[in-house]
Design a protein that fits this description.
This protein is α+β, with helices and mostly antiparallel strands and about 300 residues long. The protein has ten helices and 14 strands. The protein has one domain.
Amino acid sequence: MSTIQEKSEIIFLYESKYSMPNGDPFTGEQRYDEETKKVLISDVRIKRFIRDYLHNIGEIIYVINDKDQAEGKESGSAARIKSLRKKFDTDLKEAGIKKDDGLFLLTKCIDVRLFGGISTEKDAAVNLTGPVQFALLNPSLNSVDLRLHQNTSVFSSDVTKSGGAIGTTSLVPYSINQIHGWINPFAAEMSELEDKDVHIMFKALWNSINNANTRSKSNQSSLLLLQLVYKNKTDKVYGTDKLISYTSDKRDEQFRDISDVDFNFELLKEVATSPKIKEVRYYTESKNIADKLKSLGGNFTELSFE
């Protein structure tokens, strides 16, 4: 087994139309920067998208969602370790591991290899930092005026009774969300992250956005995935979250479709030719975006999810 050797950064764009890309768990409203009027997406929301997709395609994950917990499946650190120990009992015996098996068991889970994990079980305590991390809060490219949406609900406790309520929700008319992430090869040595895991994660990130079917997340589409690969593990290019700009004959708050925007990748082209950058890998299903990237020349390589 060979862990990843490349340091890289991730830039991922996806659009949201009349939806709530990331609600605040305390207020139920969309995360929002009142000063810049930009939509905010948390790293936890992105990791949840990825984990749910990985779980749905049969990958073993450590952090399960509330639905699985409600269905009586193992949840919580100690319970999950217990479940994994039972699942990988043969592997543990073959490896000659009896105690302190937390790290061995956690790294059997792809989300731990990616994002890290914690085990609090006695004799199996682990605190593993993941090699893949995303910015804590990711602002949208465009500014947005939130729209209040009123809705009614009726729940009957009995056939002779009825009740209802009127609520309001803050919706995002249109936002181009930019997610910024990092892949650290030094942390990968501990979590045992491999190139194939990163490949699966990219596919999960792209498809999870396109296939989200909850009431607040269903009207979203993936636009562009970039991986900026460094030549050396200690290299760093400043401002990689500012490489994509756009022009439009409309104000930001008037955007309602990707056709309202014309992307500019000139800063990306400059960084791609930096002596610190090995190559820029990309994936998109937009012909317009693909043509623009191909016209830049240089060391751009198209990713494949096959």
